User: Fold this.
Amino acid sequence: MNKYFISWLCLASVVFGLDVNFSLETKYGDGSKVKGQQGTKIYSEYKFIENLLDINAIFDNGIFISTQLEYSDPPVFGASLKGFNNFVVDYMGDNHSVKLGNLYSLYGRGLSLNMT
Assistant:
């Protein structure tokens, strides 16, 4: 199944002027963490693994597709997730721009919602 998907992706890239890029980020930790108040130190096991795969596709006609797949069991923070974390389809024309999907974006040091 994977070889058919990769073959189709390469063919689509040549035929439709598609630019595709992949980015994989893996975080792994194994050790112990300290719990407790001032004087009492309690050590507990601390393990995590996160895999984030970003897939971005840019078409010649101004369409941009971005998705992020996440496998985290257990993650660094929050609940475990296995599947789509983010999906955005963006079109930019001469006089307008349309964005569908997860509209939250991280800019600088804060989270913003751009809906202009």
About this structure: Residues 62 and 109 are 28 Å apart (CA to CA). The chain has a mean pLDDT of 78. Strands lie at 19-35, 42-58, 63-72, 81-92, 97-101, 104-107, 110-113.
